[in-house]
Amino acid sequence: MTYGAPGEELPDEGQQALVRFARASIQAALTGGRSPPRPEGLGLESPRGAFVTLRLGRGAALRGCVGLVATDQPLVDVVAHVAVAAALRDDRFDPLTADELPSVRVEISVLGPLFRVRPEDVVVGEMGLVVQARGRRGLLLPQVPVEQGWDRDTFLTRTCLKAGLPASAWREAATEIDGFRCTVFGE
Predict the structure, then answer these.
(1) Domain shared by 173 and 103, yes or no
(2) pLDDT, averaged across the chain
(3) Residues 6 or more apart from 183 whose CB is under 8 A from it?
(4) CA atoms within 13 A on the CB side of 114
(5) Residue 9 to residues 48, 87, 112, 165: CA-CA distances in angstroms?
(6) Dihedral (CA of 176, 165, 73, 124) sign
(7) What CATH number did the domain enclosing 82 receive?
(8) pLDDT value at position 51?
(9) How many domains does the chain have?
(10) Are residues 34 and 101 in the same domain?
(11) pLDDT-derived band at 5, boundaries 50, 70, 90
(12) What is the pTM for the complete model shown?
């Protein structure tokens, strides 16, 4: 699914290769095995930010989500790094176990560039948000408000809360709000 137009699109075979690579990277980290071979070509060498979200079981409960927004690393390397981090280092969850891995669904969000946005221009379902103020920063992917049924104000409020800011911080002139578009795909 695409939320807005992030720019350079990945071909379907690139998306599939990236999902397989993310899963294999997690498997190697969990078992102490060899790192999987990097998929080559397919548009995966461009420097892009990405998040890997892990969902567990039929209810698709969140099991981990970690990402990098701005990076000069190739997308394929970013995905390997954040996939392992989502499995092992998301502070909200215990590390994933090898026994859980077969029940986990891997989802990748490839980010486009950040752009400044005014609160009234935020469009739910078209953009993710980054809110920054008072030395704090919070990010929510564009699929989150869609999945939760949030309106624009709730999306802004929840992004502030994720940053550890007051719920209404998005209304303050000193608060910076950036949007981003992304392509989301997975198993």
Answers:
(1) no
(2) 93
(3) 1, 2, 3, 6, 9, 10, 15, 109, 110
(4) 18
(5) 11, 26, 10, 34
(6) negative
(7) 3.30.700.20
(8) 97
(9) 2
(10) yes
(11) low
(12) 0.90
Q: Which residues of 173-187 are buried (b: 16+ CB within 10 A; e: fewer)?
A: eebebbbbbbbbbbe
Each residue's pLDDT tens digit, 24-43: 999 999 999 999 999 988 88
Q: Per-residue DSSP letters for the chain?
A: -EES--SSPPPHHHHHHHHHHHHHHHHHHHHT-PPPPPP-STT-SSB--EEEEEEETTTTEEEEEEEESS-SSBHHHHHHHHHHHHHH--TTSPPP-TTTGGGEEEEEEEE---EE--GGG--TTT-EEEEEETTEEEEE-THHHHHHT--HHHHHHHHHHHTT--TTGGGSTT-EEEEE-EEEEE-
Residue 148 has which token pair?
């939760």
Residues 17 and 103 in one domain: yes
Q: Are residues 55 and 103 both part of a single domain?
A: yes
Based on the domain organization, do 57 and 94 belong to the same domain? yes
Residue 186 lies in a domain: no
Q: Are residues 87 and 7 in the same domain?
A: yes
d(CA 62, CA 105): 10
* Token pair in block for residue 47: 């420097």
Distance CA 7, CA 181 (A): 9
Residues 146 and 99 in one domain: no
